[in-house]
Every structure is written in C-alpha cells, then in structure tokens.
Amino acid sequence: MLATAYWRLARWLGPWTKETRSPGAIARRRILLSAQSAHDDPIEALVYTPTDRPAIGSYLIAHGLNPQGPDDERCDRFARVLSHAGFVVMCPRLNALTQMRLDASAAAQFTRSLEALAALDEHPPHKLPGIFSISLGSLPALMTAGSPRVSHLVGSLVVFGGYANFVDTCRFMIGTTPPQSGEPQPDPTCMAAIAINTAAVLFPDEAGRKLTQAWRVFVSRVWGVPEMQQRERFYEVALQLAAELPAELALTFLRGCGVVPGFASFVEEAFGGADIEAMDPRAYLGEIRCPVHLFHGRRDNVIPYSQMWALAAALSNTKAMTYLTGLYDHSSGGSNVSVLARALALLKEIQTMAGMVHAIVQSGTRPDRFDHLAGSPAPQRVPSRKAPRS
Fold it and tell me: What is the domain partition of the chain in residue ranges?
C-alpha cells in the first residue's frame, strides 16, 4: 500500500510528467459544510477519494491567495495526485484568500474544514489528517496546527513556500529589501496583492473600494498565466483597467500593479495602521507540536526561501525538516554549465524530491495513537450535503 503511494507520487510530481496531465481513478465531489453559528458562512469544499484502492490517509489543503481557490488548475491537479496516491483529500474554498485577503477568518474556516475532514465517512479510521499548505495559505494552516481547539487532529504539517514574517515578506515582494544571495528578483505583479491588503488603511472610502476591485480584476487576469510574467503583457492589462477608473485613481492603481514605481512608500505607511498581527503567523508557531516539513523552491519569486529558515527557527516546540529544491530549474536547456555539473545537480535534486515524497506519505498516514481519549471527543461522522453546482 505505501509502496504504491511512493511510486505514484514520484511519477506524478517529478519533472518527467507534464504538468498538464492528471491521474485517473479518482472521484471528486463538491460539498457544502454547514454553518456552525449565525456568524458563520457555509464552506464549499472539493473532496477527492481514490477509487482503485482503500484510502491510506488523508490531507487537508490550504490553497494560496487565488481568486479561483480550490478550482485553480494547479491546486486541482495536486489534489488529484495526492488522492491517486491513496489519500482522501479535502480542499475548502477559503473566502478571504479567494478575495486576496490575509486575515484570521481563513483560519476559522480551515479549522472547521479540518473537523469536517476527520468526520467524513471516507476518512480512514485511526488516522490523523495531514495538512498541506501552498504559498500564503501557510497562514491559516499554521494557525490551525497551533490551535488548542483542533491541534490534536493534526497528524503532520507540510508547508510549501510559506512565510514566517509578514512584513519581511512584503518588503521582498515590493522590492525594498533586496533578495539574499541566490534568491530571484520578486515577481512585480505581486505588488497588487500587497495593495489589496493595505487598501483599507490607505484609502478607507469609495476610492479604496474601486481600487481594490480593480486590483482584484488585475490579479485574476495575470496571476498563474506564464506569459503574463512578461512586463509588456501585464503592463497592457494594467493600462486597460486604469483607463476604466476615474482619472484621479489611475496613477495609484498603476503603482499598485507594479507598472509605475512609488507604491512601496504607501505600503510602509500602511504598516503603521494595518493589523499586522492578523497576517503574521509567528504568535502561533510556538504552539505547534506536530511534525512539520518545510518545502521551498530556490526560484520562488513571491516568497523568498529565506522565509523557510525563519519558519524553522520559530517552530520552537517541534523539529522542522527543511527541503530546498530547484528541481524545475534543470528542465530548460541552453546552460553553459557542464553536462557533468548538471547531472550532479539533478541527482541532488532527485534525492531532495525523494525526501519530500517520503515526508508527504508519512505526514498523511500518521496513526491516531490516542483515539481521542485524552480529553477530546472523536469527530462525529455526519455526511456533508452536496453544494450547488458551480
């Protein structure tokens, strides 16, 4: 059973398989998790289950800042790969993150989703769910893993491209802190995400609403589209949207898109009035006691890999394993590096990937040794109702 999981993860996550392909033998359904109080909203989630083998474990995925949430093609493919390996996978739509906001409401929804995953009929008995977070989705994942309410349900935590310090991460994104040796230049389109999260402080009126809406449209058109990394392409989109705004807002909008310089000073001003603690996970890191695995790409141009070391240092009550990978840097040709050097580098990256695959399998299959007898009741298995078709 576990050998099959290793093989399938290695096959589908390795550079030898095209990212446009996805495995089969998976059932996917959309469910709606009912509100628990008058203050809660229902949570829509995608659930994936293997159809050709019994489940060996489970995962809850925290998607990143993305308007599409769990419906993003990359997130959907990764969930399918995990399920094909033998895991029951749930990926909830975290409303704040789909609206490009970082705040505690995403953690509250993620916590409810963890309880729902543990209560699913398909969830394998006597196993603890693993958590897998992607990029800025690390905030709700880390907060949930450190929550007194549900930390006993977390088997292990895998953080891919996460961050420890919100302000330092923002300063990398906006270019005021130069990259450390070996780190890439930041993706200029990330400025828009920072603009959205500081707009309420900088422009707390109708102007702020219009700017935020325009920045969200900009993000929906350029993020996750490889050709939009080209400066002339995202400039074109930004200029089109700026033309639809009142003249007095157009320049500010273009600054927030990274097209015109000058927005960094606005962000520094916002740090004095924004609720930084609500966007920063460090207050919760000391409460995390489950095993933690930190993955980060060398070429991550959104969150620098130095944040992985910051996370590892701040996880004071558990040992965090770190995996720094540049595997996909070796997929393009034209390098002046010798064939032998490239081969040795690729071998090292494959060894790192093997460690990451092992961490994924182990993190999603940890046994519940206490069977909830240590003061916490077992989750009640109540089937969730289907969500309306989207």
Answer: 2-10+25-165+280-386, 186-274
Neighbouring C-beta atoms of residue 46, cutoff 10 Å: 21
Neighbouring-strand partners of residue 47: 29, 90
Is 376 a residue whose pLDDT tops 70?
no
Give the span between the Cα atoms of 264 and 261, in whole angstroms.
8
Fold of 2-10+25-165+280-386: Rossmann fold (3.40.50)
For residue range 122-164, list pLDDT tens digits in order: 999 999 999 999 999 999 999 999 999 999 999 999 999 999 9
What's the pTM? 0.89
The DSSP element (H or E) to which 57 belongs, if any, is strand 57-62
Q: Residues 213-242: pLDDT tens digits?
A: 999 999 999 987 878 878 899 999 999 999
Helices marked H in the chain — which ranges? 2-13, 73-84, 95-98, 104-119, 138-145, 166-174, 191-202, 206-222, 231-242, 247-256, 263-271, 282-285, 306-314, 339-363
Q: Give whole-number Cα distances, 130 to 61, 282, 299, 352, in Å.
A: 9, 21, 26, 20
